[in-house]
Amino acid sequence: MSVSKLGQALSGVAADAFKHLDSKARGALENLVNSGQISADDAVLGLRSMATQATFSRYSRERPRDQEDDQRLAASGSMLDKQRGLNDRMGAAREAFGQAFSNLQKAQESGELSMDQVREGLRPAQEEFDAQMAAIGNEQAALGKASSLEAGYEKTVKGFNAAMGSMISEDGFTEAYSEKANGAAQKLQQLGFDAKVFGNAFQNFAATVDIPGIGSKAGAAAPKEEPAAAPAAAPAAPAAAVGAEAADPVQATAAEDSGAGKPAAVDRGNAQAALSMLRAAASGTQKSGSDGILGALAGAADGTADTAASGLLDALKSGAGKAGPDDGKTV
């Protein structure tokens, strides 16, 4: 029996992760490769990246935590609460301005006010909105550059790369947050191979990984099928599955609250608040020509940024804080 392009390229971690996909997800992936939308090599790299992200997410939640982590987590939690409060105030200010504009517009449409009167009536609301936004901006600047988040996340990334070092190879896991590997994963997600298609497959895979110092989860979900390679004539994915709008990448690597087979739940508000602070720091970092996660997040595509936000939240929950740069080693 002939083996498909994807089947020929599958090996190592990608092959193991592939076994955790159901027939729908396997068919969607086969269809993307067979249709030429992505190469078999890039599809395999994307699988390795997703498998690594899920394993890193598990590592960040389960790694032993020391006193430094606890202190950093408390400080980071306080910063996140303040940032969330500022975001709420910003939303309220925009809503108030929008309501004022809407009321004046309705009065103008009914003939009660002229356009000049509308503009004059809108002036106080505009001034109030500008003043509130300036105050919020000053308070955001006072929060600092989220150094504790950056340092803690870097600690988690270094710990993961060290723990998994023997398993990071050409067909094994990638470096945590490898730019090249994450780019391949993002391309798959943009093509529709997302959490709506593969569900908890990568979390289930991560649960089976024997992470040095942590081990594997007892009772981890076993793959439904274990073929040696992808079938030559995999079922074609439904058009809706392949062309569906990409699900939030946060869901792809989100933490399970209990059991590998349970759908994950992420506090997206916390993740985005943390990401907002890192981006604020990144804007200053880029001006000085620095690299790393701060610089990367400032210009990151939404999918990559959301994935980083998810990993950041997992790290924060276990007392960590920054994704390290890709150092050009094995992806």
UniProtKB/TrEMBL annotation:
Q: Where is the composition biased (Basic and acidic residues)?
A: 59-72
- Source organism superkingdom: Bacteria
- What is the protein name for this chain? Phage tail tape measure protein
Where do the record's region annotations for Disordered lie? 56-78, 248-267
**Highest classification ranks of the organism:** Bacteria, Pseudomonadati, Pseudomonadota, Alphaproteobacteria, Rhodospirillales
